Structures
1.
Amino acid sequence: MVSKTEETQLNRLENQVDNGGGGAWDYLCLVRKLKVRRSEKVFKYGLSILNDPKKRSALGPEEWTLYEQVAIAAMDCQCLDVTKDCIKVLQKKFPESKRVGRLNGMLLEAKGSWAEAEKAYSSLLEDNSLDQVIHKRRVAMAKAQGNISKAIELLNKYLEIFMADHDAWRELADIYVSLQMYKQAAFCYEELILSQPTVPLYHLAYADVLYTLGGLENLQTAKKYYASTIDLTGGKNTRALFGICLCTSAIAQVSKGRNKEDKESPELQSLAATALEKDYKQRAADKLGLLTSALRSLKI
Amino acid sequence: MGLGFIFGVFGVLFLFHAAYSTIQYRGLLKIMEEEFSGPPMNVVLELLLGFVFCVSAALTVPGNFLSIHPDSEENRIVSLPANLDFMIFNHRAKALPLEIDMKLKH
């Protein structure tokens, strides 16, 4: 979970390193800790550290983690020669390592030789059939080959064993949303919210899926989850504010023909609209006109 | 930081002095064979003063307190970590070559 302070720190370090101000090792450590995907920069600055023997020896035992990080970044940037060299160095140092074997499998994946990568992963799984990362790599491979149904099947089997893996649930929800299977995606998001109730982004995604499903009950639940997102982010999440406005107007539209129970107080929508206008005035004053006209059309 | 530290040092000195005074007072009472009900008023005052100094030093010397609210400006979650375990490599960036052509020098 990347918090606001960590994000500002990351951006500051990134600017500093980009403008030649040093601090590349701190930047790489922060990227590794926050698990963000900045492959080009990691590749560029990591390789410059590794190519400089003085800086390399100053790292000590962290050098090998840097090799692994640069190898993965190089695969993402399609510089497979660098990847091969890094893996060779790691293999010389750690000959019988499963981690290096996994990197080899990922290299085969990046090259596009799916069958060989599958063979490599199955041989690694024979030694240890409960290796979480290898299972996940197989799912990723199925996804990369375009075989989404196989990816879903593998991921479901994985989740039967490792039910507490949030990343896997998140991935499954993403796949279901991409296939427009919203009910199943809602189930995955419910699992995520149950296990980590304080992460507002899960509430937001769940509310989005419910709003997409439509129907009066789903819209009311979606409105509640948008409200909880606003609560957990201190009102700074623009998407949730918009969600409240849209949900209220959608509920009003759906229940127009029915007898008005009128539990819905219009306060929430007007509060959200006010908060949005304040935010826009502060950050994008030239788009304020668009916002007010959009909100006005929603209230009808 | 300097002022807080001085406060802390003074607070500890006051506490030690109060303890020493109480021990002396008890010795005196033993000589005069009277009951020891409690330390005299000024020692209690000194004790309280030392306590206040120590607590204020403890609060100011370590620095700023960190926020604990999950929805505060610093702590709110802005983005989720990219799912690196499920990262795939045949994305569109394959068609965009990297400008810098670096190699591992060994």
2.
Amino acid sequence: MASPVSVYNSNALDTHISSSSRESLKMELLADVSLLPGEERIIDKETIYICPFNGAVKGKVLITNYRLYFKSVDADVVVMLDVPLGAISRVEKMGGASSRGENSYGLDITCKDMRNLRFALKQEGHSRRDIFELLFKYAFPLSHGLPLFAYVTQEKYGENGWDIYKPIEEFRRQGLPNNKWRITFINKNYELCDTYPTVLAVPFKSKEEDLRRVAAFRSKGRIPVLSWIHRENQAVIVRCSQPLVGMSGKRNKDDERYLDVIREANDSTKLTIYDARPSVNAVANKATGGGYEGDEYQSAELVFLDIQNIHVMRESLKKLKDIVYPNVEESHWLSSLESTHWLEHVKLVLSGAIQVADKVSSGNSVLVHCSDGWDRTAQLTSLAMLMLDSHYRTLRGFQVLIEKEWISFGHKFASRIGHGDKNHADQDRSPVFVQFIDCVWQMTKQFPTAFEFNERLLLTILDHLYSCCFGTFLYNCESARDQHEVRLKTVSLWSLVNSKMEMYLNPFYTPESGRVLYPVASMRHLELWVTYYIRWNPRIRQQQQSPVEQRYKELLALRDEYLKKLEELQLSDSSPSSRLANTPNTSSSTSSTPPQQYTHLQTPL
Amino acid sequence: MEFSEHIKTANVEDVVLRQTLHPPSRGTLCVTGHHLLFSDREEGSCRQVLLLLRNIDAIEKRISGSSGTISIKCKDLRVLHLDIPGMEQCLNIARSIETLSCLEAVSEMYPFFYRPSNASLQDQWGLSSPEKHYSQMTELHDRWRLSTVNRHYSVCPSYPPAVIVPKNIDDAMLEKIAKFRQRGRFPVLCYYHRKNGMVIMSSSQPLTGANRKRCMEDEFLLQAVIDGSDKGYIIDTRSSQQALQARITGGGFESKSGYSSWKRLHRQMERGKALQESLIKLVEACGDESHNMDRWLSKLENSKWLSHVQTALSTAGLLAECVERDGHSVLVHGSEGTDSTLLISTLAQLIMDPCCRTLEGFLALLEREWVQAGHPFQQRCSHSAYSHARLQQESPVFLLLLDCVWQLWRQFPLALGFSEALLLRLATEAYASNYGTFLCNNQQERCVLRVKENTRCLFQALLRPRERDGYSNPLYEPTELAIWPSVHPQSLQLWRGFFLRWTPQARHLEEAQEEIRNMIIEWGKLALS
């Protein structure tokens, strides 16, 4: 008899590796994959997947113009991989023709989504040359003059996600324009600022010439514009880039006046300027012509939020990957986690957003910027808006928030993610948006009933941040998107989401419209998002849906059944009761009581 | 009453109570023999805080001018500040609290005075007894018997009067075996696995000593346990090094030669002082109000609390694996068999046995494996993390158990029939209680003090209909399957509900969870009606 394993292991929970019968293994690989419209086979090959959790697994790999698919053969457990090529950041050859040792010759693939893949191939006859070249070509289509897959596929959905965000409608929802704020189309040809959207909300008092003069003093022409206004106290969140102060300490009267006009709009005593950067970085930016608002802005106060730049965030996430993939650094897990500083960065972003939200809800207008105003600024404004405005906590509202604060205001998705680009070492890459989604996840953890959407939505968003299957996250700004006709030629991610909404709903959602959510940005209350960052590890219990949520949904289904039965009963009752219509007291009291109970208990589901 | 000699000032007016989660309030403070009572006398509010003096772990007093402040740190980790006018009154109150909160005499403790109107002393005490347990498990009767060799607590003072042992081991043999095991804790049955007939036994270490003494009867008993099957396992909760060293002081372990069919597995579990110090460090880190929280994760790691949780769960997992997956019987012991032994045996039963996962089942398990089996609650829980007193026998083993159960509960939110609130309540009651359940160190002491006759039973109280609702899990779905916990460090979490319970941050999460709970209960009722 085998003695029990000396180390208790809890691997019984593997789910992405499931045992299967022999017959299915014989099936043709292509038959397993349901290809998307426009997806085509490029190459397939016998290969060995060097699985970091199960060792070398023999199988077959299929590469299409959209994905890399692998399935094991002749193993007792089926190992499967289904990776969109968009998630690949780097493909390298591993070993040479002369390298020795088993499985030392093949491909080494680095992914953007916290994993690496290694495949071993036969050493003889340059067997990897074709697959390497084809994979390289299709994983980085833009570097090879090929279109991104979003332009190839023409998947149809019942919903059109491009309709989800209409700037004017969103401003109207916020109560704009009003007597203090107006909508301007000054940027309709992207002449004022090529990274801003065409529709902007600016102080009513500022004329178009004023805006142009302010644009000259703000980095990349990203002038202060309104992101959000508080319905009651009229305090606003205004976003922009850094002022072009430079070493000589230049001033710009128009900019100073413009900021004062913003302050005046709701009679804030001071306009609080949140500079997301650490103060040293803000000072250092003067050397390259940037800087921050000095004492000449008499009606403003400046607060530095100490959030590090994109390079620090990139290195931090890289360190996190090192301790979770392929193996979790278990012996000193917490101190290793601490040394990545990832949670600390999350904390600083969240606490910055809390300060913004708190200022605004107490009636003071704020201005948020970093250097260019498209990374940290987007994090801060969107998180603060999520805290202040419950509309953004609904499934559709959250889509609007991303469309508005991230996509339309020019978060450089193309540069940060590197869609279709072979330059994996590009210094522009950074997980700023991932970090934002992490912050949102932390909030959903702390307020389990405040968000209409669930964790699956966040995971889906992050998966398609890389996949290049939808047009949503492509390109750096609206002008580039117009130029590439993204709305015409690609499908929006929200088309997918909104045509399967029930998958992304949080059953525990209870709307509370007036409530401002202040999450706790203390390290004690932040958690590592294990189900995202460590999800490739089979030891992490894979739960597409928490069992609590699942059980609750079952109960809701039961309720629906019960309601239906009740309705039927009422229908079959209706004829005798209509005959008794002359005695309304009895009929109404018997048949309408139960439904009234339901309306009483109605939740938003 | 003799308490009065410790109370120089019984009443102070105009005291300000400051506590997190509440605005400061002004009112009257009273000290009684067992309680601190604060009542708010302000317009429109009638806040009352009634605190068992026994719950107070440490007090600090600061005198400034004519008034003083007493900071009270409780065993349930609550912290209260009282601003008391008048230096003398403040000192008097402080002195009373210091004396009355750590009176040693059990018979003077509050459970002997607690007389709620809704229960009488005639109510049933306890949920189960070894006799009842045995009679319910008819499958056992072929090979096991109920021995009353300990009816006068003379063979083993920390065992209950009746224990389950192999049928062919008579009382005379048991008496001999008891002499061979530390403090007489001879091997007894704690769990019978219905699926395959395998058992979990527990005991204390054998007293082999430096000259490797043997005891034929002890070897015979263990042979009788495995009867017919090829082997059994002994899980020793000490490292093999520690077990070797124990020989020098008269203890030891089961040698290969004497117990050839038994295979020993050593798993070092932290106990005693080390565990208490771990708790102190953790609570200190949790209470750190400084803004520099950059080092929180390191502090959490340095406290080692989570690694104790991990060791306990993984050792329990190993035990359950031996029994459930490999089909062998297991004997568990460390040195005394009253701490880590009980911890892993209890956890293994929760992992394997669905009957232990209901509210009643869990409480009965605790009664059997902790109260009756002689976990020395009195010694282990006399102080908690804030105390400045010199450490004696304190050790948060029971709290560690509750934390491990919480981890199970979090990983299997549907599999356990009770709620987090139950675990929190038990964590409080073990240290300071109106009930007699956790008084004393073992059944013999309880018998001498007539605890059963003179106090109320906590477990019965928790099962009363009104209480019960709050302590059951509305999502509970019984499963016959074993629930194998994941013990990877990234799967284990700080039990915020307990350790950060009194921070404002934990409060809103508690509220949201309560909201979800109510939603589930409401819909559950409707869906099933």
3.
Amino acid sequence: MIFGEAEIQQFLRLAQRGTEEKEREGALVSLRRGLQCPETQQTFIRLEGSIRTLVGLLTSNQALLQLEAARCLHELSHSEQSAVVEACLPATSYLLTYLSGHSSDFIELCLYTLGNLIVESEAVRRQLLPQGIVPALAACIQSPHLTVLEALGYALSQLLQAKEAPEKIIPSVLGSTLPQHMLQLLQPGPKLNLGVAVEFAWCLHYIICSQVNNALLITQGALSTLGLLLLDLAGAVQRTEDAGLELLACPVLRCLSNLLTEAAAEAVGGQLQLRDERVVAALFILLQFLLQKQPSLLPEGLWLLNNLTANSPSFCTSLLSLDLIEPLLHLLSVSNVVSVLVLTVLCNVAEKGPAYCQRLWPGPLLSSLLDTLAFSDTEVVGQSLELLQLLFLYQPGAAQAFLQQSGLQALQRHEEVAQLQDRVHALQQTALHG
Amino acid sequence: MQLPPALHARLAGAPGSAEPLPVERDPAAGTTPFSFAPRLVRFPREHDFFEDGDVQRHLYLQDVLTQVGGAPERPRRPSARVPEFTCQVAGCCQVFDALEDYEHHYHALHRNVCSFCKRAFPSGHLLDTHILEWHDSLFQILAERQDMYQCLVEGCTEKFRTSRDRKEHLVMRHLYPADFRFDKPRRSRGQDFAVDSRIIWRTDFSMGDFYKALSISPAVPGAAEQVLAEALGDDRAPSEGDAMEVCSEHVEPSPEPAGERRAYSHRIPSTICFGQGASRGFKSAKKRNKHQ
């Protein structure tokens, strides 16, 4: 609904000075409908005194007027125009103040409004930090209301995604009690709520991939919590057709993968979670799920598998003993990116020596490799060549079998490719002359 | 992708790991022209690798956000409509037909209420600060000698000698508005303006509004005061001084600190007189005890 200046003024006047409470509320409801429209939003913010009046109603002693005024602000917060969003600046100190109230619906509304404002404007973020948004959220996260928590997670995730977050925001978040509470809300168990967990898993992801102080998160038990959560997810995936689980799987996979690269992860490597082969089992169950539900997330799952197996004889052995090589090979036809990752994981296993290669052989590996050699993608072929070298080195009979399956012809087509030539020739030599 | 049937059982089984096979590397492995070495891979923010998952997340949020707003036309959770009922708190006559509305009303107006002066606050924290600064005589004594006014921002531990210093800190350090509603200084005692004199120092109160408020005949003594107060949405009369509280009208940032009230006394023309024999200022609040 497009309202002009005169109509907006009328609504505001009625809301502010009307005698009947229902009338005042009704005026704001009408205004709100108008504010769903970008044109009305523009007219509103350009009207002198309009925001001031709205903020006045937001802080009035009439609770229902407060609520309606907050809803109007919420509409404004949806705008993609920075002028509209920045017009809401005078309201932010009040939105933050109300986070320590008790009315869960109202708090939820304030949080979503804040989250929206945060996304659109650096000026808003620049103001919210000194206004104390981090301590306000840290206090609010102790709310027992799931709807409030989900809204808080949303607002926080937007804050953490800001481009200046690694320098200006994440350090103070890490210095607060927020990480501990977030990890608590990610603990698997009967109290785990999917909507809430999704938000805080994404929050963790933005913190972790910014690489500000991941060691701190590890000391707070992030690896342990996320590992258990992964197991829980795999269990859930088996039990139900719930469409939302991949929304949680994605950030969990990312967090775990990145955390495993930290030196501090080595230090807690003694913790069971990092050696527990159920993690590998869970990951494959998730990979199967992702293959059906969201194949574009397969690279993320395989990234984790790479980081689990790269330096771990234990996990490489688990891949073999749990018979996961064949399922892994099935993924080779999905995409080039996936194929490279699958081959990398196989290299992780093979490079550990003869005992490992022996368990890779015979089986479908050879024919899969001959298939990948037929790909045109250089990276896929290159990774196949690396794997072949390891197999030829550690597995007697591999070269022979390769020759017998017309391996040389498969190699020939890449003889002229710059990035592949040298490796192709080396393999040809090894195959022919041992 | 067929998974071995034992896998599901393994997931449900006990924690544990396989005895790792012996590692035995040949130095020739991964040497020129080959280059493979197992590597932990780390992806930083904004890496292309995250694109697909990020898009999915974005679509999910768009979906969620269109449902937010609590607006009656598009409820996220259906709001429970019940037969009309009245707020049970003594002295409050607000009527509701939806539980959600009642919840907010209760929390906003009855939850954090000062038992001394009946003012309501949005949070326990602000209520506690108010009680300390307004109703604790020990506070007053201590404040003469040390910094007692605590910053209102959660997490900031600064304290100040006066409420004005605190306000300056709120504005300069925390970028709060100069007229932040929940930080009005307490009026000192012993003035002949009582509570209603606040009507005088609202700087955005125009003479037009003033006369409109008087449109009901002021023949009845005291009626005009009541009308005036009601017109300004002031339906509760705190028993003393002024206002770190929720006001119904937004006050413009005043050029002088809010504690000074003399500057505004000229707003009531001397020709206006309330009821018979009333003086120019307003009398004490005794007769306005409607909602205590």
